[in-house]
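Minutes, structural biology subgroup

Action item carried over from last meeting: produce the structure token record for Protein LicA (Thalassotalea marina). EB confirmed the sequence was re-checked against the source entry. Recorded below for completeness.
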Amino acid sequence: MRTLTDIQKALDVLNVNLSASSMTLLAQGFSSDNYLVSANGQQYVLKFAHQPLITSQIAIQPKLHELAITPEVLATEPAKGLQLSQYWPSKTPCTAEQLPAIGELLSRLHQIKHNSACMDFQQKFNQYQGLAEFAIHRPVIEVLKAKLSAFDKHLGFCHNDLVLDNMLQCDNEVKLIDFEYSGNNDVFFDLASVSSSLLLGTEDKARLLTYYLAHCKLTITNELAVKKLNCFQLAYDFLCYFWYIEHQQPRLAKQVLTQLISPKLNLAKQSDN
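Output recorded by EB:
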């Protein structure tokens, strides 16, 4: 836990001419420590990232703010992992009630042009091959990878980490934060992460796709979009599960594993046909 003196030192490094009067540690983020800071009569979010900030992801922030996707980033010091942002109060976590806003927001995000490399699912899964848990699920993962590669790609600029804490909502307006993992990817990865984070059922998944497709006009049938979303959600949940195992988060790993059981069994049955 940092002190108010530590917060002031960080503000001085950022050269923002602010005097911190209070600070509160926010309960979010595995890759950073985030503080709500009161300074000069205003409130800000000060991020202490555990790794240096990636310059290409900093460079996209003004565009994200211009499109009303994320709160404004006011100052950064990439080498020290420091970032000061506008504070946007989120009253309650996002739920399925915000699906219209989320679908429209993601359509804006995914149409941004960016020159980042595209996420490689093969590589993502391969980095967890040393885990005992990976060996247990390998047969299903191999079937899943084959199914993922069979879908046409629908590429766009993605957030790639849409856990509940990274989706802020106030009065049904939604903004996204923490773009550390952002880059080009199949847009269904973001849609799948929203579905997983909000624990969407069949009807709400269809609603999410309806709202999203109404804005971005992908060339895909509704039936195929549902199948693709389900496959990508299974991939997303597996990656989250392995990430939690690797980072010694057993409670969260168990929670995701519970979500995996039914779709994993369904996919296993398909592979036996």
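Discussion: DSSP finds ten helices and nine strands in the chain.
Next step: EB to file the record with the rest of the batch.
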